[in-house]
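Thread: quick sanity check before group meeting

JM: Hey all, I'm pulling together slides for Thursday and realized we never actually wrote out the predicted structure for the chain we discussed last week. Dropping the sequence here so it's in one place. If anyone has concerns about the input, flag it before I start.
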Amino acid sequence: MLRLILITMILISSLNVFAYANHDSAIEEWNPSSAGTLTTWTAPLCGKGKFVIQPFVFYNRTRGEFDSDGKYHRLAKGDRKDQYQEQLFMQYGITDRLEIDAQAVYQENYIQQAGVDTHKNGFGDSYLFLRYCALEEKGWLPHLTGLLQLRMPTGKYQHLDPDKLETDSMGNGSWDPGFGFNLTKKLKPFIFHADAVFSFPQKVMIDGVKTKYASYSNYDFGVEYFLPKGFNLMLESNGYLQGDIWQDGQRTASTAVNYLTISPGIGWSSDKMQLLLAYQRVVLGTNTDANDSIVLTGVYTF
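JM (edit): ok, ran it. Output follows.
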């Protein structure tokens, strides 16, 4: 996937060389407002002294699951699994090239299974980010930003109630440092975004068992198409890869997790406010839920 991202960016850059040679300097100043993509990072930073808040509201409906062989199984008739999730993402510009970000999550989990109906709500794991702009877009060069992140175990992960059918599981318990990069390239009327982030969970004791989650990677690609009167269309793909879990020094076979999500959306923006409504669908994976999600997000800059 990383090779595909690099090839795509080379092609985009080559096209832009041609475009740059045939358009006037006004193209360089094209900088439309939008809420961006849902999961794919956008490389430009918020700017020195600016504080940006972006709430997300997710409704996730599980239609089935993908097993360890990647085979899809529909939920049994009468069963149901839903989640409402509220996220708050915040950015603050320390300088024009350096910003600090944070994200908090609150979720409400519902399960109806074999005649049992249960639910639980609480805070999930939280994140801190530090981003540095290494290269601003100029001519055929893309915008390039480096990323450091830390996932913090603020969600409940052990001493789960068996009667709650894991609806009280809100996190994985480990501290996960990571790093990555974000790319953005404008080619009017499109803006392309790509990222790759690599995370390294630390050992954690879960209900008396020494647990080590495998390292994992996120890779994302998104594109925005800008329309008149502040509207834009968005399409992105989001991938996740993680190996087997280790418990008390032994690898637990067939516990690797991976998935691919596809997300179309439509947005509207003004100078101060940007909105995006999108649909997400997990189209393939292993050891993961097959979810359909409706997502609403907005951005406001102070």
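AS: nice. Residues 32 and 226 are 8 Å apart (CA to CA). The radius of gyration is 20 Å.
JM: adding both to the slides.
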